[in-house]
């Protein structure tokens, strides 16, 4: 069977790489979070590999609730560029690759975010993406006048209204609203200006936005929540879904479920691009791949491993339990419920001790790890892609820049040889490369004075 | 007398230029607000002219309260890039020039703004500036859950607390906090991490900031408020003060007053750089300069002129008064009280009709206009500079790019010839070029767990 679909690829690029010990890798740039040349290098490498986009995760705080100063001092990657400023700089130093930033609907105002993403979309000529998150830590809440984060349901209700306001603001001006008629003195056609006048539970926003409609209509909306609320949100709003699965079965079940949820509310399921995370450790031989993996695993500081696991479990304190014993039963959390469940189930299924569990999640953090040759990795990606577990993948290089170079130089050519991945960018915008149509201007009433 | 001080120069760069009819000028780029190439061109021109910085004004809304759609449609420059994203892109495509963005303390959260300016400072290797404003329109308030803006005093009280929080957050990490010690696994020295734990009237912010201390310690703080509250704020926080004066007398009085206010609260008056705005219309002859000015004046649409005047008067409705009669007495406003007063006094002093007044403010908008040859302009700048009316000037080209090219090619060489202006950048950061010292790390207690 000839596969006519093409795989989509995102590059997940925290400065040192995805593995928790990446910053200790001999090749890594440990201060890469503040080093624009490093980001330019890895972004241009991803562009050379014809990736659809790079992807920056984000939070609005630093967790400092560790047991003591020594444990705190061992946490890497606490500091880095703010993503929208960094992507603005990358927008004018790259040509093709999409630029997706994470931003929270819980601690922002829709006018600011709608405006900044519109500005990024103009600077990049239509290559912006927004990974919508509702945030998951009290450390963030405490930077915004709160003691603890709003509960899960409230965060998602606010997120939904936030999206309505943002989409409304992006429709402030029609694409051809501006006349620039020097002769008559008419700057724009007022029948193509729309005033939002939104009043809702969380927001009262009049509009219009003080920037023209983004070239893509709006940034590509990316979402990664996998809880019930998260899936309902994704089915309604997301155009790209980042997700985490360990097996093809799980991936297929999610793929079918999310596409049919989208279809049930009237969306075209092809316009929801499902991209599970994959942590690839590439070797020229399997032995080399395993050695590279083990040498990174050996760099895991035990206190950091335990801290990482605590975070993945929604900040449940497990420090009182023996690390060589099993995970205790977990209470309900207001953090990321889906991630907690995924990690917990994995531990139960495999009968892992706490230590074994944190070692196993330190690399891929709940995402699928593939350790092997370019052929091994291409085989697995092909299987998931062809059997509808994925429309593409969010590639999480273990360390940077080496882990990305390996993927671009060794795995991408193999995917291209099999006809699974592009050899040239199809379009000029992120939306075009992802096979998504530009949304029609939302119909609403023009300004009336 | 040999003048040892050097003049500082900022370039005020709204996309079409400062004159209200600039976008209708035959040379102007009317869609320049969304055209990165246009901004790169004018910023590189300012850098070629050894300007200390470019300066972007900003607001978080579009005024739509005009009498009818036709009047609305004649308002230019309603849409443009968001400044911090635009300056991030310019940070990596320029080398020397400072990059100053306006941002409001009334409609932002300190964690976000402190973080974004820190990120811009890292991207530019120490060339960021922040023009702190408290905003002046209800149109902005209505995009942020309010019906009307908070009153003047409340806005300034919030601004003061905002600055305390922002400065505290910029001190989260000492300059040498990061060890990046791959061998021992220690990422940073915890004795050099500071937790803010701010709790005040408007903000409760724990910190720390998730980005390293900015290369400049913090962005250069710019301020333009001239009311009593504005001056008190500037004396306390500002490192650069943008101001507006029509005569050397006025400029000297302000210069002396603001420097002594700063000195009284323990600051070095040399570290408050006073830069009045200047609107230069450069001609190779005086006749040419006058002709260029008149040809721009002829492009002023009467409804736009009247609307501009209304805005400068704090949105006081004067539409019921005959345009060829005098300005009525004005009620108190919650907008920019200092600007209202300046414009009102100018009208009274010269006995201007409403029409004469809007024609006179359409170009320079309350700032000093100098229409003449490069020698004329250099003479006036030199007089203000030498006689302590100014430490430098915020140059407001009437139209772009032409008005800036004229200044850089004709006036800057004349200032350099007289020894008043640099021929090479003195330092690598904006702070160094302005002659400002990097602030010491604020003393506070390191993190304790």
UniProtKB/TrEMBL annotation, chains A, B:
Residue ranges constituting the Luciferase-like domain according to the UniProt record: 19-390
- What domain of life? Bacteria
Q: Tell me the PANTHER family matching this sequence.
A: ALKANESULFONATE MONOOXYGENASE-RELATED, C2H2 FINGER DOMAIN TRANSCRIPTION FACTOR (EUROFUNG)-RELATED
Database matches in InterPro entries: Diverse_substr_monoxygenases, Luciferase-like_dom, Luciferase-like_sf, NTA_MOA
Q: Which family does it belong to?
A: Belongs to the NtaA/SnaA/DszA monooxygenase family.
| Name used for this protein in its record | Alkanesulfonate monooxygenase
Q: One GO molecular function term?
A: alkanesulfonate monooxygenase activity
Gene3D superfamilies from the UniProt entry: Luciferase-like domain (3.20.20.30)
Specify the taxonomic lineage: Bacteria, Bacillati, Bacillota, Bacilli, Bacillales
What does the record give as EC number?
Answer: 1.14.14.5
Pfam families annotated for this entry? Answer: Bac_luciferase
Keyword field: Flavoprotein, FMN, Monooxygenase, Oxidoreductase
